Amino acid sequence: MASNYSPLTTHVLNTATGKPANDMQIMLHRMKPDSSWEILREGKTNEDGRLPGLLAKEEFSAGMYKMFFDTSSYFKEMNISTFYPYVE
């Protein structure tokens, strides 16, 4: 298996173009015991709309996770207005 294997993955597609959404900022969070969120990783999607290597298998544990997709910046870069500034 590739060294960037992660048990948690994402694949972002731009449904307007039918193509992968490359260069979109994503933040991965995990809920802490006090119900606040901690950022575990952040990065930008690659040309295939993926962010490989989010978490190593050893880092992944049972719990509540969320991903923050910065759609506002993604569409602004293409001079397109968007209704949703982010998606979680």
From TrEMBL:
Transthyretin/hydroxyisourate hydrolase domain residues? 3-88
* Protein name, UniProt field: Transthyretin/hydroxyisourate hydrolase domain-containing protein
The family database entries (InterPro entries) matched by this protein are listed as: Thyroxine_BS, Transthyretin/HIU_hydrolase, Transthyretin/HIU_hydrolase_d, Transthyretin/HIU_hydrolase_sf
- The domain of life is Eukaryota
Coiled-coil positions: none
SUPFAM superfamilies on file: Transthyretin (synonym: prealbumin) (SSF49472)
Matches recorded under PANTHER family: 5-HYDROXYISOURATE HYDROLASE, URICASE AND TRANSTHYRETIN-RELATED
